[in-house]
Amino acid sequence: MIIDDVRFVLKDGREALLRSPKEEDVESTLEYLAITAGETDFLLRYPEECAKYTAEGEKNLFEQKNASPNEAMIMCIVEGKVVGNCQISFYTGMKTKHRASVAIALISEFWNQGIGTKMFEEMIRLAESREDVMQMELEFVEGNSRARHLYEKMGFRITGVHPNAIRLKDGTLLNEYTMIREMEET
Fold first, then answer.
1. Domains, in order of start, for the chain
2. Spatial distance between the Cα atoms of 160 and 153, rounded to a whole number of angstroms
3. How far apart are CA 91 and CA 101, in angstroms?
4. What is the dihedral of CA 185, 155, 138, 176, to 10 degrees?
5. What would the pLDDT profile of 151-185 be if each residue is shown by its tens digit?
6. Which own/partner contact pairs does 25-31 have at CB distance under 8 Å and 24+ positions apart?
7. CB contact at 8 A, 132 and 126
8. What is the pTM of this model?
9. Which of 27, 140, 160, 5 is nearest to 82 (CA)?
């Protein structure tokens, strides 16, 4: 699905734009994927795994997300570059259509600039626009206190744990926590 553009000012004064992905974002997205994978162990990929992503694959993914009535990808663009993105996917089964899954990541240079909050506000708006959606869901990796703080600020609470869900190169095992945000009744 295509979202309306959202323009806002970062805490450091730079201008930012949230919008649906466009073909012109492909190369910047490939850079973004590799950068974010190398900045933290809290994403589900290492930088070398980003080699599997191609310009053609990203272009096709953008087209698929933009055409879907049940998924949205939102890019954050600053100074012409992709610095973050998030996604929301609405379940479609009769037993699960009350749920939406979300994910988010930002280049570390842009942490603490208000982007995560703006992205979540947009994803919450999208979820609230669907009458069947009763809860939003996400996961975060043990130790990612920055993300946990943002998620809790946006109304999410921990509901479960996947023990030893993540195994780092050095053998360290980390839990993955599930969180939900229940939608307010209108």
1. 6-182 (3.40.630.30)
2. 18
3. 8
4. -140
5. 999 999 999 999 999 999 999 999 999 999 999 76
6. 25/62, 25/75, 25/77, 25/82, 26/55, 26/58, 26/59, 26/62, 27/55, 28/80, 28/81, 28/82, 29/58, 29/75, 29/82, 29/85, 30/54, 30/55, 30/58, 31/81, 31/82
7. no
8. 0.93
9. 27
Task: Kindly give the pairing relationship between strand 71-78 and strand 81-90.
Answer: antiparallel
Determine the Cα–Cα distance for residues 91 and 133; give it in Å rounded to an integer: 9
Nearest CA to 154 out of 84, 97, 104 is that of 104
Coil/strand/helix, residue 182: strand
Cα–Cα distance for residue pair 144/153, rounded to 1 Å:
14
The answer to whether the beta carbons of residues 36 and 103 sit under 8 Å apart is no
Residue 184 has a pLDDT of 78
Q: What is the mean pLDDT of the chain?
A: 96
pLDDT of residue 185: 67
In terms of Cβ atoms closer than 10 Å to its own Cβ (0-12, 13-18, 19+), residue 186 is exposed
Tally Cβ neighbours within 10 Å of residue 41: 17
3-class secondary-structure state, position 91: coil
Residue 186 has pLDDT above 80, yes or no: no
With the CA atoms of 109, 113, 119 and 125 taken in that order, what torsion angle do they form, in degrees rounded to the nearest 10? 180
